[in-house]
Design brief:
heterodimer; A: four-stranded antiparallel β-sheet; 31 strands; B: mainly alpha; 57% helix; 0% strand; Serine/threonine-protein phosphatase 2A 55 kDa regulatory subunit B (chain A); repeat (chain A); WD repeat (chain A)
């Protein structure tokens, strides 16, 4: 199924929402401007543009297919009337420019309406071509293709706050690119061992700091975070700070390392904190404290006793993303059974919601869900054993300023809006 | 019966009798589960998608798990054949039953008694010296595919076993590094052919062995089962071919 959504991303104003799918397609949604005339239609997202970003390729050297699945999309800050975004599959990053055309010139002197040259003898007077309105046309063009930069699979891209450079990270290396230069990139992190047999750790995610253009973070499969400063040296193998929580010896099992692997890392909007997601928890880290996270939230701790089965069916390797709200007061992440969780950092309250057709009629209020782990069971509770592990919410995004969230549930996109700024319960 | 050391990280040696007895009962189950986890992990590593490059993160995590188990087994010295204990047909459906391996080491040290994980055919009870022929023939039943893998690994010399693990891991990473269509062949070509007794060949038990091995793979609820078992069968055909050559020469 080629329409499984593989990434979701709002642009910097929240006006546009881009999704990438397994078939290499990108769909961009645009928010309808709010108008007093139609209060019910305000703020809805409708399809703005669809285009094929990546095609399947074949690596002849290795006799391997290169999937066209879009791993990540990142928007560039808007600098003129056009919008730009970066989209990447496992190997190649592309810069796309999105422009609108809603007028066209009419009344040429030398050409007729179809563009054919006029017979000059019929031209008796000069006219000035006039711009006339036309149906809105959205044009998407590939402006840059950043190829051959990665031997391994690209898992993250991140645009620098300088708006001139961006980085792309694969399992073992991170490259720095200039947005205008496609035939060169600088390798800034390389954790590939001399002997591949000695490989025990890979890079899982990375991101630039939102304000300091010299700082970036990358996470690893062993659960550590490394903050690097590009001013320190050209090759940032040596981290400036290492964030790692010591293992709890009483909770140790053969799966400890796997569940500690960080699947996503996101800086807070303030730039003061980092949010990480591992298999069972989300953690908030203070950039000033490397020894342990300042907050830890249990996403689905009831799975701790099922790790063996989840290892068997590969679910334990699922990579969930996490997100901050605009004010960094609430964090969100996905789970199984099309559930997603939100944690309010101030009130310490959390809620589990479901993204499904049944529970999401337009303008209906989402009902909190509960997973029961034996003991007292309330009416609408779901038991752990009846959770559907094929329905996983891996990709979620939060509008940069408002309480609007985008949830990707396999091949469906849900957009939830919070009209009234109500408290979570 | 000699009691092997139970790995206890948080406890000192002074245990009350009840705890120790419960601990003894828990030992074989823990070892069996650990063994099956090891087997499962090795199978996961070897079942690569032939067309698309395997996920390196997943492979590294599985390989690290294999190393962990290997280290622990080395420390415990548990290379001998584990005697059976059949406490009934335990469900292979792990999602329903409680898994020892998912428990913290603290819980294990407390010696909680858990339902046995009976993976061994009754025929194996108490017999350490069975040769590989009998092992394979009795393990060929479809119901107990894991028996074959367990026994095949257990029957070997412990030193060889360790060597094979290391070899397998190294090969796997080389394979991941230099992915080529021959990769899976390479992995299988290093399999120790001493499993395959001449007697086994001549009495045509190879077909049973193949069956058991592939069924074992098919029981895994992996999304790649469909393609992987067909890969497995073709690879075992090749192994078959290699063995035939050995027999002829």
């Amino acid at each position: 199924p080629a329409d499984i959504i593989s990434t979701v991303e709002f642009n910097h104003t929240g006006e546009l929402l881009a999704t990438g799918d397994k078939g290499g397609r990108v769909v961009i949604f645009q928010r309808e401007p709010e108008s007093k005339n139609e209060p019910y239609n305000q703020g809805e997202y409708n399809v703005y543009s669809t285009f094929q970003s990546h095609e399947p390729e074949f690596d002849y050297l290795k006799s391997l297919e290169i999937e066209e699945k879009i791993n990540k999309i990142k928007w560039l800050p808007q600098q003129n009337a056009a919008h730009s975004l970066l989209s990447t599959n496992d190997k190649t990053i592309k810069l796309w420019k999105i422009t609108e055309r809603d007028k066209r010139p009419e009344g040429y002197n030398l050409k007729d309406e179809e563009g054919k040259l006029k017979d000059l003898s019929t031209v008796t007077s000069l006219q000035v071509p006039v711009l006339k309105p036309m149906d809105l046309m959205v044009e998407v063009t590939p402006r840059r293709i950043f190829a051959n930069g990665h031997t391994y699979h690209v898992n993250s891209i991140s645009v620098n706050s300088d708006c001139e450079t961006y980085m792309s990270a694969d399992d073992l290396r991170i490259n720095l690119w200039h947005l205008a230069i496609t035939d060169r990139s600088f390798n800034i992190v390389d954790i590939k061992p001399a002997n591949m047999e000695d490989l025990t750790e890979v890079i899982t995610a990375s991101e630039f700091h939102p304000h300091h253009c010299n700082l970036f973070v990358y996470s690893s499969s062993k659960g550590s975070l490394r903050l690097c400063d590009m001013r320190a040296s050209a090759l940032c193998d040596k981290h400036s700070k290492l964030f790692e929580e010591p293992e709890d010896p009483s909770n140790r099992s053969f799966f400890s390392e796997i569940i500690s692997s960080v699947s996503d890392v996101k800086f807070s909007h303030s730039g003061r904190y980092m949010l990480t997601r591992d298999y069972l928890t989300v953690k908030v880290w203070d950039l000033n404290m490397e020894t342990k996270p300042v907050e830890t939230y249990q996403v689905h701790d009831y799975l701790r006793s099922k790790l063996c089965s989840l290892y068997e069916n590969d679910c334990i390797f699922d990579k969930f993303e996490c997100a901050w709200n605009g004010s960094d007061s609430v964090i969100m992440t996905g789970a199984y059974n099309n559930f997603f969780r939100m944690f309010d950092r101030n009130t310490k309250r959390d809620v589990t919601l479901e993204a499904s057709r049944e529970s999401s009629k337009p303008r209906a209020i989402l009902k909190p869900r509960r997973v029961c782990v034996g003991g007292k069971r309330r009416k609408d509770d779901i038991s752990v054993d009846s959770l559907d592990f094929t329905k996983k919410i891996l990709h979620t995004a939060w509008h940069p300023t408002e309480n609007i969230i985008a949830i990707a549930a396999t091949n469906n996109l849900y957009i939830f809006q919070d009209k009234v700024n109500s408290e979570m319960h | 019966m000699f009691v092997r050391g139970l790995k206890r990280k948080c406890f000192d040696g002074e245990e009350d009798i009840e705890g120790t007895l419960a601990g003894i009962k828990a030992i074989p189950s823990y070892n069996l589960q650990r063994q099956s986890l090891l087997d499962m992990s090795l199978v996961k590593l070897q079942l690569c998608h032939m067309l698309v490059e395997p996920n390196l993160c997943r492979s590294v995590l599985i390989a690290n798990t294999v190393r962990q188990i290997q280290e622990e087994m080395t420390q415990d010295g548990t290379w001998q054949m584990i005697n059976t204990q059949s406490t009934g047909q335990a469900s292979l459906d792990c999602l329903v039953s409680t898994d020892i391996l998912c428990r913290s080491s603290r819980e294990q040290a407390e010696g909680k008694h858990v339902p046995g994980y009976s993976t061994f055919n009754k025929d194996f009870e108490g017999d350490q010296a069975q040769d590989s022929l009998e092992t394979m023939s009795t393990a060929s039943s479809v119901q107990a595919p894991r028996n074959l893998q367990n026994n095949v690994w257990e029957m070997e010399n412990p030193q060889e076993n360790k060597g094979n693990f290391q070899k397998s891991l190294d090969q796997i990473f080389e394979t991941l590094e230099n992915k080529s269509p021959n990769s899976v062949e390479d992995l299988f070509s290093e399999v120790d052919n001493s499993y395959y007794d001449l007697d086994t060949m001549l009495t045509g038990m190879m077909s049973n062995t193949k069956m058991g091995h592939c069924d074992g793979l098919e029981t895994f609820t992996s999304p790649t089962t469909a393609t992987s078992s067909s890969n497995c069968k073709s690879d075992l055909n090749e192994l078959d071919h290699i063995v035939e050559i050995l027999v002829e020469s």
